[in-house]
Amino acid sequence: MKAIVLFDGPCTLCNKSVQWIFKRDRDFCFLFSSLKSEWSHIHLPKGLESENSVVLFQDNTFYIRNQAVLLILAQLPGWKWTRVFSYLPSRSLDVIYNRIAKTRYQIFGQGLCAILPKERIVR
């Protein structure tokens, strides 16, 4: 099974990020789904459904926040160098991630939807 990137559907930053990942995912590693999708509702463990997290489901494991972002980037051609960030303290990365997550609507707005081919979307 391909990895699934779960994101906040109404968030412009999240949707732009999904489009950015999709564009660079030459090996078709990822499928995409909203945190509000039926798949998410059925499969996400309690506590991970927060709209303040990007979630990656890969190899039957859920990864959240900066860990999910770093794993996604490490699988994209030309972005493997970002693995260097995994050596930084997770707490430091979480502070940065949480700051962006809390202000993303004010900075980037809401409403822009990622347009992806149907075969790359998990419902």
Portion in helices: 25-40%
N- to C-terminal distance:
15 Å
Q: Pick out the low-confidence regions.
A: none
Mean pLDDT: 88
Round the Cα radius of gyration to an integer and report it: 14 Å
Order of helices and strands: EHEHEEHH
Helix/strand/pairing category? alpha+beta
Number-wise, the strands total: 4
Shape: globular
**Biggest sheet, open or closed, and with what strands and sense?**
4 strands, mixed
Number of helices: 4
What report would you give on this structure?
The structure is a single chain. This protein has 123 residues and is α+β, with helices and mostly antiparallel strands. It has helices at residues 12-24, 38-43, 65-74, 90-108, and strands at residues 3-7, 30-34, 55-58, 61-64.
How do you describe this structure in short?
The protein has 123 residues and is of the alpha+beta class. The chain is built from four helices and four strands. The model has no long low-confidence stretch (mean pLDDT 88).
Keywords:
123 residues, alpha+beta, 4-stranded mixed sheet, 4 helices, 15% strand
